[in-house]
Specification:
Residues 20-56 form the RRM domain. It holds the Pfam family RRM_1. GO terms for molecular function: mRNA binding. Helix content is 34%, strand content 0%. It has helices spanning 5-14, 33-41. The chain starts with a helix and ends in a 15-residue tail after the last helix.
């Protein structure tokens, strides 16, 4: 996994904002919070995080 160029560009434009939210869906059940923090930290500081999983 890596951060694509569209996400990096969005991050640059949003850097002046105080707060942004991002929804990411269709993730494998194997994906962990730590994995996502590492990936998204490439685009900037991750201030808050919520990993919601399906009830199965």
């Amino acid at each position: 996994m890596g951060v694509n160029s569209a996400l990096l560009e969005w991050s640059k434009r949003a850097s002046a904002a105080k707060e942004r939210s991002l929804f990411v869906g269709n993730l494998s059940n194997d994906v962990t919070e730590e994995m996502l923090r590492v990936i998204f930290s490439e685009a900037g500081a991750v201030m808050n995080f919520r990993l919601v999983t399906d009830r199965v």
